[in-house]
Known about the structure:
This protein is α+β, with helices and mostly antiparallel strands. Helix content is 16%, strand content 24%. A hairpin with a 2-residue loop joins strand 15 and strand 16.
Amino acid sequence: MSFPPVNLPDARDLDVRDITPTKEFEDCTSLLDDHDALNAFYDENGYLFFRNALSPRSVVQARDEMLAIAADHYGITEKGDTLGRWNGNPLKDFCEDGEEFSGISRRLIEDPSNQDFLAKVLGEPAAMVPLVQYRLYPPNGPVTPVHQDGFYSPGIEGYRPVWTALVDCPREVGGLMVAVRQHKRGFYHNLGKPTPFFIPEGMIDPDSWATTDYRAGDVLVVHPYSPHAGTPNTSDRLRVSLDTRVQSARAPKAFAARVVSVTPNSLTVEADTANVGTVTLKVDEQTFIRVRNPGIREDFSRFVEYTLPGMRLLVVREGDRAEMLRCPTAP
Ligand SMILES: O=C(O)CCC(=O)C(=O)O
């Protein structure tokens, strides 16, 4: 079913600070061996939550790597403090996909026991989507506004986003909240307002919001149409988490690639992933093109001017068409 776009130029934006989650996530761990039941829960509720899902050893490794960057690169905690207490220094020039984090998500996803878990979540062997956001959030920092991932990242329908707490994040440290069962009415983002098209007040049931006291190694999967947002960190510690995404390892739709050649309505890329190889994809007005800056959607009519052979891209394909072309990250 399709829903008319929201176009309310005079509406007030929904403010994440006005939301109080009153519900608790249900733990879906018992559904892991019944993929149909797991999918039914996901379709019904718009999320999956797994308590202590990832191998503790892999989580401690990722936590220590993140906290070492927090200490050495950003100077916001003391080296060796495994609680990640904030030392009062401001977080400056933070980049959620900065090269300093490169490899942390891959090691976590490719850990053999995590692979077993992710294959159960996905229903087949899982590979990482080369797009990760690493989060080191000090107390009282900005909070991620309410959004639906599918609105900003077309083509992600087949993935499973994997939001992972790497330290214990009880409510005062903050984490993610999800508007449960609010994912069946299309996008709420307000096209009547300028980018980033904030969701207006009054569209999402205020009693639908759920969260939990996260523990390190918990995993939350959020449906691409589920509204969700960060919750504030009012503690004395850093909120350390990452959001990565997994997809079919057999037929990956999203891959890092190098541009071989370009025409006004197609491009040929050589993928880093061996089972994708060199492919030619159609590009059209609907392709979500963000090849120079992830925050700027490019004008399709000038595709050949800004997309140059040799350029590295994150490509999302749907059959023989490019659904999204984005400047790459070093996940
Ligand atoms: O961790 C956060 O604050 C935001 C994460 C998020 O919104 C996402 O994974 O889509």
